[in-house]
Write a structure and sequence with these properties.
heterotrimer, A mainly alpha, B mainly alpha, C mainly alpha, B: two-stranded antiparallel ribbon, 27 helices, globular, C: Helix Hairpins, elongated
Chain lengths: 177, 667, 101
């Protein structure tokens, strides 16, 4: 387990660096796909099988494909030099490192894991064992349509709006419009 | 006396003129003249009726019970009250409490009665003036202010009334504001009043902070009755305001007198009175004869418990009063403006009143006030008739021969003059002789005061009959004088009424030089002011009476000789004693002295502030703030670069900092 | 597995930091956008980690919704970017400083 985690973590991190540091935009996109794949593996480690699948299918499979299309469309403008090492970059890097350190400290000191591997003792209502009895999809679906009904409905509305918006924004403009 | 009816009547007496003022003022001059002609005098006469009813009620009580305090309005009260409403521990309060006792009723009667007659007179006098409505609004305001002053049992409202009176006098003196001289006169009057206010207020502060009650505790009270009850000596060492005649009481007495002197135009705060003749004649009659200038006399009479504890202060008061009386009488002999003669006469007579209350003859002083209100208002209004007939000419050298053309005015003016001069059987004689006998009573070894008083009387009869002869007798000096005609009825009736009063009123109190068959007036006031000091021996008194009367008649005779028969030329004095003549004519140079010593340096300082301090300091500060803010805004603007990445950087850094803070708080 | 809990969270933080760095440092609009996606993913990871370690489904549901929202956001964002490109402005973030005072 730990080994798998370690490999996946390293790959994810390298992918992230690749996004930020690649000279060519396409390479950035591909690095991002790699990062997402590694994250899917990590999701599997965390007993979120359905979400791992969704991650691959939707995120890596649809969203990133869209990204690649657009990059191909806007190709000539999508090249750029490696960012110069100016004061903003240094300051940003410092902030990023600081952020990580702070979160790390908070995590290590503030939150402890219980004896049986869970944050609070005992099996909760949705422990992986229980979930596995019914199946993740079913449990997730139940939650989605009962406790989290409102966010679900709003999200579907959002998807509709996004679709309409995208169509509108990318329509061909006639000359003089 | 039923407190409820007293409350109601006091409210009516005070409220009617207030209502008249408010209605008139808030209508912004749009009321028709007929309405104002009824409203203006009407409210004052209504207040007079209420006052008379109060008087009748008061007289229905036995003398010891003639005094009641009612609260018209409880505004702010810091005293501690017990369950029944009685005061357990005195404290500061700003309630409109009203004291109805003989002294305040006397003042109220004069204010509303004589004031009412003057209002009626003004209907005629101001008939052609475009500011008719404004005039009556201001006059009602003045009546209100005076009533607040004399009715108030709270030092707070007394001071409020005091200040309102000063303001009302300012707007009335400067009524014809298009005239720079009128505005200057109004300003002069107001500024002098404010100097007096400082004295009054400081005196009040000292009383408030130092008066102790019977148990030695600080009282912190502004109620006059409480103050007077506790001012005297008592069992406790630190009772009242300190040991009798002690320094603090004297200081307070002098401070209060500063206020009184400003209101009553006594030296050194006297210079505003002659200039105040710039106002319309009814204003002079009301303010400078009957009411405002007597507020000082009222103040000292009302505060007599304090002056009884401070003989030194009383002595200062008496000295200043007598000095002013002499000075004013001398000046009055050479003036050519009829109103100024009467103004200086007022100053002189008030000086005599102040002298009386200073030596403790409160009843005599108030009696003189009463008679003086009658005949001085009479003189002013009659003079107003003359001025009106001559189309606003006030110089007596341009008059003459008016006795034939304006009979009634002439007769009434003569009546007033006889009263003023103290000719026997007219009102002034009774009050003045009572006054002089008080002066003599200080001790036959000190007849000086009586002597000076008699000199004042002589000069008084001289200067007023000088005016009578020059203005009314002889031949008309100008065509205007020749074509003068008598005043209309609305202006004659008040004058005649006042003349009647001036003849009769003296008989209310015959009490001088040991001869007192009829003492209605002083009996009336006794509950408030007590019994006057002892009298001198009988023989001297009769002699003094005779001498005083004869000398007053002598003054009249001299005037007749000089100006009537022209036996002696008036220029004789001016040639033989030019310095005396100049001193008198130039009002003893006080205006010039004040101008050089106070006015010019003050104006120079003001100019300096305007030219240097204001541009550099005040404007500099404001400009500095402006440029500072402007500069800061410019510097801040450079933050808005429009640079997306920079904004993102700032977001992130702040988020990290926020997390750090959060982390520290959770840890 | 319990010992990996901090590891997951630190990884999530690190990925988030890298994404933020990308937003701050890169000039290409598309790369900036991708960095934003990276940050969203990091958030998802944290959510699911907590879901796992507190035995609730809320984290997973939330992560699912985040994915849906991210998808719609990408769609609209790319449409906008295309529009920007087509208006002849290029894709350099530094050139787009109309918010300058």
């Amino acid at each position: 387990m730990t080994v798998v985690f370690g490999i996946a973590a390293v790959v994810a991190f390298l992918g992230a660096l690749g996004v930020v540091l690649s000279r060519r935009t396409l390479y950035s996109a591909l690095s991002l796909v790699l990062n997402m794949a590694a994250l899917a593996v990590l999701f599997l480690l965390l007993d979120a099988q359905f979400l791992a699948a969704v991650q691959i299918i939707v995120y890596a499979g649809a969203v990133m494909v869209l990204f690649v299309f657009i990059i191909a469309l806007l190709a000539p403008a999508a090249e750029e030099r490696i960012p110069r090492l100016e004061w903003r970059v240094l300051l940003g890097g410092l902030a990023a490192i600081g952020f990580t350190v702070v979160v790390g400290r908070l995590t290590l000191n503030g939150i402890t894991v219980g004896a049986n591997g869970h944050l609070h003792g005992g099996l909760g209502p949705f422990s992986p064992q229980l979930v596995n009895a019914h199946g993740q999809v079913q449990t997730l679906g139940e939650q989605l349509f009962t406790t989290f009904l409102l966010p679900f409905e709003l999200t579907s509305l959002l998807l509709l709006v996004a679709a309409v918006g995208a169509v509108y924004l990318s329509r061909h403009r006639r000359a003089g419009e | 006396m039923n407190p409820n009816s007293t409350l109601a009547l006091s409210a009516v007496a005070l409220g009617l003129p207030t209502a008249g003022f408010l209605v008139n003022a808030l209508s912004a001059g749009r009321l028709p003249r007929r309405v104002v002609s009824l409203l203006g005098p009407g409210v004052v006469l209504g207040a007079f009726v209420a006052t008379v009813v109060l008087l009748v009620q008061l007289l229905g009580q036995p003398p010891a019970a003639r005094g009641i305090t009612v609260t018209l309005w409880q505004w702010l009260d810091l005293s501690v009250r017990s369950g029944s409403g009685a005061v357990a521990k005195t404290g500061f309060n700003a309630n409109l409490t009203v004291r109805i006792d003989p002294l305040s009723l006397l003042m109220m009667l004069v204010i509303t009665g004589v004031g009412g007659l003057i209002h009626v007179y003004s209907v005629g006098y101001m008939a052609e003036d475009p500011g008719y409505n404004r005039f009556f609004a201001y006059m009602n305001l003045f009546i209100t202010s005076m009533l607040v002053l004399v009715m108030s049992d709270s030092l707070v409202f007394l001071i409020i009334g005091w200040a309102m009176v000063a303001f009302a006098s300012y707007v009335l003196i400067a009524f014809w504001y298009q005239r720079p001289s009128a505005v200057a006169a109004g300003r002069k009057a107001f500024i002098t009043q404010v100097i007096g206010d400082v004295g009054l207020v400081l005196g009040t502060f000292l009383i408030f902070l130092n008066l102790r009650g019977g148990d030695g505790q600080l009282l912190h009270t502004v109620d006059l009755q409480t103050i007077f009850a506790n001012v005297g000596p008592g069992p406790h060492l630190h009772n009242g305001l300190g040991p009798m005649g002690g320094g603090l009481v004297t200081v307070i007495g002098i401070l209060l007198f500063v206020g009184a002197a400003a209101k009553s135009a006594q030296w050194p705060l006297h210079t505003w009175l002659p200039d105040a003749m710039e106002g319309p004649t009814p204003v002079s009659a009301l303010i400078h004869a009957a009411t405002m200038v007597t507020a000082g006399v009222y103040l000292i009479a009302r505060f007599h418990p304090i002056y009884q504890q401070a003989p030194v202060a009383g002595g200062v008061v008496a000295a200043v009063g007598m000095g002013t009386a002499v000075m004013a009488a001398v000046i009055g002999c050479t003036q050519f403006d009829i109103k100024r003669v009467i103004a200086y006469s007022t100053m002189s007579q008030i000086g005599l009143m102040i002298f009386a209350v200073g030596v403790g003859a409160y009843s005599a002083g108030m009696f003189q006030f009463f008679t003086h209100a009658c005949f001085k208002a009479l003189l002013f209004l009659a003079a107003g008739n003359v001025i009106h007939a001559l189309h606003d000419d006030q110089d007596i050298r341009e008059m003459g021969g008016l006795s034939a053309r304006m009979r009634v005015t002439f007769i009434t003016f003569v009546v007033g003059s006889l009263a003023l001069a103290g000719i026997p059987l007219f009102a002034g004689w009774f009050s003045k002789e009572e006054l002089l006998s008080a002066g003599l009573a200080l001790g036959p070894a000190v007849p000086w005061l009586w002597v000076i008083g008699v000199c004042v009387n002589v000069l008084t009869s001289f200067y007023i009959f000088r005016v009578v002869w020059i203005a009314f007798r002889g031949q008309p000096a100008t065509p205007r004088a020749a074509s003068a005609h008598e005043a209309p009825a609305v202006m004659l009736v008040p004058v005649v009424v006042l003349a009647g009063l001036a003849s009769v009123v003296g008989f209310l109190n015959i009490d001088f030089f040991g001869f007192h068959p009829l003492t209605l007036f002083s009996d009336f006031l006794r509950p408030v002011v007590g019994v006057p000091a002892a009298q001198a021996g009988d023989g001297i008194q009769a002699l003094a009476l005779l001498a005083g009367t004869v000398l007053s008649l002598g003054g009249l005779g001299v005037a007749w000789a000089v100006y009537g028969r022209k036996v002696i030329s008036p220029e004789l004095v001016s040639r033989r004693l030019p310095w005396l003549y100049q001193l008198s004519l130039q009002k003893f140079y006080w205006d010039e002295i004040y101008g050089a010593a106070l006015a010019r340096p003050g104006l120079a300082l003001a100019a300096r502030v305007r030219d240097v301090t204001e541009p550099r300091v005040f404007d500099g500060v404001i400009d500095g703030v402006r440029s500072g803010v402007s500069g800061l805004a410019d510097d801040l603007r450079s933050l808005q670069t429009g640079f997306l990445r920079e904004y993102a950087l700032v977001f992130f850094i702040c988020a990290v900092l926020g997390l750090i803070v959060l982390g520290f708080r959770l840890a | 597995m319990s010992g990996l809990f901090p590891g997951f969270l630190i990884l999530s933080a690190a990925l988030f930091a890298v994404g933020a760095l990308g937003v701050m440092v890169r000039r290409n609009l598309l790369v900036v956008f991708m960095s934003i996606e990276l940050m969203l993913n990091a958030g998802n990871l944290a959510l699911i980690t907590f879901a796992r370690y507190t035995d609730t489904m809320a984290g997973q549901v939330f992560a699912l919704i985040v994915i849906a929202v991210a998808a719609s956001e990408v769609v609209v964002g790319l449409a906008l970017i295309t529009g920007v490109y087509r208006s002849g402005r290029g894709l350099d973030v530094d050139e787009m400083s109309e918010m300058r005072e």
